[in-house]
């Protein structure tokens, strides 16, 4: 089984240099991925973008979507893979570019997958990484800082190369908009019953995000959980 590359999209969050946007478009064209999404770019110079993309990748640039908000950009996706050079305490186990391909190959058959890259200066914040169901770190020697477009090419190449011997079916999952609605609903319930600390509820929700990321919820299952939350909140309010 190969990765369904047309369901895999590169998402650049707050890129600083238009040249990296153009070079990323070229990498997408080289490896046959589905497309490019740019969120809140620091400098958006179409001449510089097109120059680095070259004529061959002009179709990727023409079809590129630009958003102001990361949640809006990711709302359509069923699965999100974040990239980071930072590992350590409190962060989830990470994939390498070599292992992420086999991980997403079954998912990609019926689901749209975002591969999310942060800005050249700051990378992805913890807040944005919370939106991701999987994390990728590119191994390096002593110097872990990689050029943004180089990172895009490395990930894209490994997706292109993936070829699993077995056939595994993964059904369509809930998208990010549906998942975020569920997390907000759960947080409301947990706060209402005093289960999590109201001073920092998002921190305590991290364990539930990790749990449901492993389970890979479908749309129907998200609706079931939200229905339970609505009923529980109604019951609590009726007893007040």
From TrEMBL:
Keywords: Cytoplasm, Methyltransferase, S-adenosyl-L-methionine, Transferase, tRNA processing
Gene Ontology CC, one term: cytosol
Gene3D superfamilies (UniProt xref): 1.10.8.590, 3.40.1280.10
One Gene Ontology term of the molecular function aspect: RNA binding
GO biological process: tRNA nucleoside ribose methylation
Similarity comment: Belongs to the class IV-like SAM-binding methyltransferase superfamily. RNA methyltransferase TrmH family.
Protein's recorded name: tRNA (cytidine/uridine-2'-O-)-methyltransferase TrmJ
Species of provenance: Dissulfuribacter thermophilus
Gene from which the chain derives: trmJ
């Amino acid at each position: 089984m190969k990765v369904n590359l047309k369901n895999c999209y590169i998402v650049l969050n707050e890129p600083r240099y238009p040249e990296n946007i153009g070079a990323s478009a070229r990498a997408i064209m080289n490896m046959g991925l589905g497309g490019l999404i740019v969120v809140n770019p620091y400098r958006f110079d179409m001449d510089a973008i097109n120059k680095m993309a070259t004529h061959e990748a002009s179709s990727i640039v023409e079809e590129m979507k630009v958003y102001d908000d990361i949640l809006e950009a990711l709302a359509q996706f069923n699965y999100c893979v974040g990239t980071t050079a930072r590992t350590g305490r409190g962060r989830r186990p990470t994939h390498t570019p070599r292992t992420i391909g086999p991980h997403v190959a079954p998912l990609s058959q019926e689901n749209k997958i975002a591969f999310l890259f942060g800005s050249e200066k700051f990378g992805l914040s913890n807040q944005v990484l919370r939106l991701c169901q999987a994390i990728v770190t590119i191994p390096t020697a002593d110097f872990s800082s990689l050029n943004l477009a180089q990172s895009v090419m490395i990930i894209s190449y490994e997706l292109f190369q993936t070829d699993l011997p077995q056939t595994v079916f993964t059904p369509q999952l809930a998208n990010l908009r549906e998942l975020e609605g569920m997390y907000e609903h759960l947080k409301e319930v947990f706060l209402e019953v005093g289960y999590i600390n109201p001073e920092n509820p998002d921190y305590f929700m991290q364990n539930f995000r990790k749990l449901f990321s492993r389970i890979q919820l479908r749309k129907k299952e998200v609706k079931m959980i939200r229905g339970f939350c609505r009923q529980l909140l109604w019951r609590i309010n009726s007893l007040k």
